[in-house]
Amino acid sequence: MIDAVEILKKYWGYNSFRPLQQEIINSVLSKNDTLAIMPTGGGKSICFQVPSIMNGGLCLVISPLIALMKDQVLNLKKKGIPALSIYSGMSFIEVKKTLQNAAYGNYKFLYVSPERLETDLFLESLSSIKVNLLAVDEAHCVSQWGYDFRPSYLRIAAIREYFPEVPILALTASATFDVQKDICEKLLFKKNKKSFHQTFERSNLSYSAFELSSKQSKLIDILNKVLGSGIVYCKTRKRTKEVAEMLKLNGISADHYHAGLTNDERNKKQEDWLNSKTRIIACTNAFGMGIDKPDVRTVVHYDVPYALENYYQEAGRAGRDGKKSYAVLLYNKRELEELKKQSDLKFPSKEIIRKVYGALCDFLQIPAGSGETISYDFDINAFVKNFKLDAFSATSVLKILEQEELINYSEQFFSPPTVEFTVDKFALNLFEKSHARFNEVVKGLLRSYDGIFDFPVAINETELAKFIALKKERLTKILLELNGLNIIDYKPQKEKPQIYFLQNRVRAEDLFINEKNILKRKNASEKRLNAMINFCQNKNRCRSVMIGNYFDDHHLHPCGVCDNCLQNKKVILSNAEFNSISDRIKKICNTHPVSSQVLFQQLSDFNENKIWKVLNFLLEENSVVDQGGLIKPK
Q: At what angle do helices 350-363 and 391-403 cross, to 10 degrees?
């Protein structure tokens, strides 16, 4: 068997693994169920790609991110590693052919979106596929109490019945202790399971948070001071465009990106930014997954995220090349107050859930007792306008209906154009003789795509137009004409968001809502939000340590480069003051664990910045520890 380092060098060009990669690969090769917590950009994919290449058969990779699946498959193919993917939007014929290739072809990876795992076609094909590893990307999605729960992830464990001896590798960039425990339980990890945790420390990344009444001038100031490529995260699509326009007016090369753009627009904007034709991309969180641009110098959050999980992942896209970089969070008090109020909108009453459900069924014109397994084009803006609904509340209800397994909502749905000839080769030959103006396109299709007489084939209109030297608009027009003449069956590109019904429509008043589960998710969400707000407002504790502690990493030392650490360095503290504060902290903690808020109340006769400086030192030296926000003795 080829050595893992040889595989790494042959396909990736590296002479050695990053920290923990080798250990995770060895665990997988020893057939241990393995949980790997690795930061964004930490090289998670190599941990399943290398061992799978070393073994016979293929790796079944489960991922909820279609764009990321496509990127990884493309990158593997460029390295000469055969890979396949199955995702929403593919036709029955396309899925069937892909599964046949997985079973009988020389493929090493099959990427699958989680909802595809339950289809009869997929389950029937499993017995023919030799699987050497189950890799679950974004594994935190399996936990109801995590920040991105997806019910389809709960069925991954059932797949293990088909491959009882095959190990599972669960990967995520951010998971608290409770979520890690949930992942292992829900994925039915065996007793020999192993867990690996990379440190949450990013020594080259400086975190800071600024409370501002006006953010525009601060953003411009940051981007003028820190040169190089950058990302500005915004909460709404409208805001991304406003920010990009504002930056351009101030002489900064910028563009905007969100899920509402067409696939071609998104690809063009992404490529321009990756190739540094555009310096700054103002975007929603739809941007960034799977994008490996090592030289991002700045990530600015123009709006406060709802959870530290989101913030840590997005901020972590800065400085992957190891050079000095900045993660900046801009906020104001009004924004934080609004975030607190959004909890009730995010988790509305069962009456509101039933109201939105009924409106949704009416909007899509679904008769009672029908709708199951049918996918509908969905325009949320028209929906909320027609039924006079609050957009945030309506979107939250759709998420709840998805978590209650009533629907699937795909905001970033993309289905490529497909073509199938509907006449045989003899009839096509006669047609070409009498309709010469179509010959270029017909020959271009025949030369570019195999199997086009047998089933619908996904085509790339941009590449085909280049191949036959036609403008893309002209090509599309000719394809529509050929479709009208019944020579081909042409289905244009489809990009509208989709609502897929998992159950038939019921009367709104009969809709069952698991209020107990929703309340638990609400409590977990509020806990995450409070941690995010504390991160914004805390002006003393090291921000890197706060993030690490949130994810139960209690071995981090103050970074020395975040805004709070730099401020604390300015605090002058005498030996007598240090000893006095230190003794008092230890005495208070020895009585019983206390929150930092209570601790500061009991030390109100000291300067707050000096208390923080002493407390940070004690935490660094492990004289006291911070567990779940409570300070207690080591």
A: 90
CA dihedral over 161, 162, 168, 172, signed as positive or negative: negative
Q: How far apart are CA 79 and CA 12, in angstroms?
A: 8
Give 437-488 pLDDT, tens digit per residue: 999 999 999 999 888 988 788 888 988 999 999 999 999 999 999 999 999 9
With a CB cutoff of 8 Å and minimum separation 6, the contacts of 494 are 89, 413, 414, 415
Cβ-contact 449, 419 below 8 angstroms? yes
pLDDT in tens, 42-58: 788 999 999 999 999 99
* Domain at 4-197: CATH architecture: 3-Layer(aba) Sandwich (3.40)
Dihedral sign computed on CA atoms, order 526, 556, 330, 138? negative
* Sign, CA torsion 153/154/160/162: negative
1, pLDDT greater than 60 = no
Q: What is the DSSP string of 533-584?
A: HHHHH--SS-HHHHHHHHTT---PPP-S-SHHHHHHHT----HHHHHHHHHH
Alpha-helical (H) ranges within 364-414 are 380-386, 391-403
CATH of 205-331, one of 3.30.1330.60, 1.10.10.10, 3.40.50.300, 3.90.1150.10: 3.40.50.300
Q: Does domain 338-414+496-520 have CATH number 1.10.150?
A: no
Whether 109 contacts 129, CB under 8 Å: no
Tokens of 320: 């992957």
CB 28 within 8 A of CB 102: no
The answer to whether 60 and 131 are in contact (CB under 8 A) is yes
